[in-house]
């Protein structure tokens, strides 16, 4: 779904426009998708990253050591990716 979103994004942007993507890196911490794959999808779609704003979560699961995903959640960063056509 993410790859298709990026592939189609240029068709929906006005000249000079940006697409915004809010995305957690939890999949990276769980070994489901490396960051390099996301960046290659952005590049393949003819897009570039204009900026990225990161935020660390503060929800209770981050500090719940009984949660089987605790290590990944504690390292997780959610980012606002500003993306534009190259």
Using brief descriptors, characterize the structure shown.
single chain, 86 residues, alpha+beta, three-stranded antiparallel sheet, 31% helix, 27% strand, elongated
Description:
By secondary structure, the chain is of the alpha+beta class. It has one domain. The chain is built from 4 helices and 3 strands, in the order αβααβαβ. The chain has helices at residues 2-8, 26-29, 35-44, 70-75, and strands spanning 19-24, 47-55, 78-85. Strands 1-3-2 form a 3-stranded antiparallel β-sheet, with helices on one face. It is elongated, with a radius of gyration of 15 Å. The model has no long low-confidence stretch (mean pLDDT 94).
Q: What is the secondary structure topology, with strand pairs?
A:
Blueprint lengths: L1 H7 L10 E6 L1 H4 L5 H10 L2 E9 L14 H6 L2 E8 L1
Antiparallel strand pairs: 1-3, 2-3
Number of spatially distinct domains? 1
Give the end-to-end Cα distance, rounded to a whole number of Å: 22 Å
Specify Rg, calculated over alpha carbons: 15 Å
Could you state the order of secondary-structure elements as H and E? HEHHEHE
Total number of helices: 4
Give the strand order of the largest sheet, numbering strands 1, 2, ... along the chain: 1-3-2
What is the tally of beta strands? 3
Provide the residue-averaged pLDDT.
94
Strand content: 25-35%
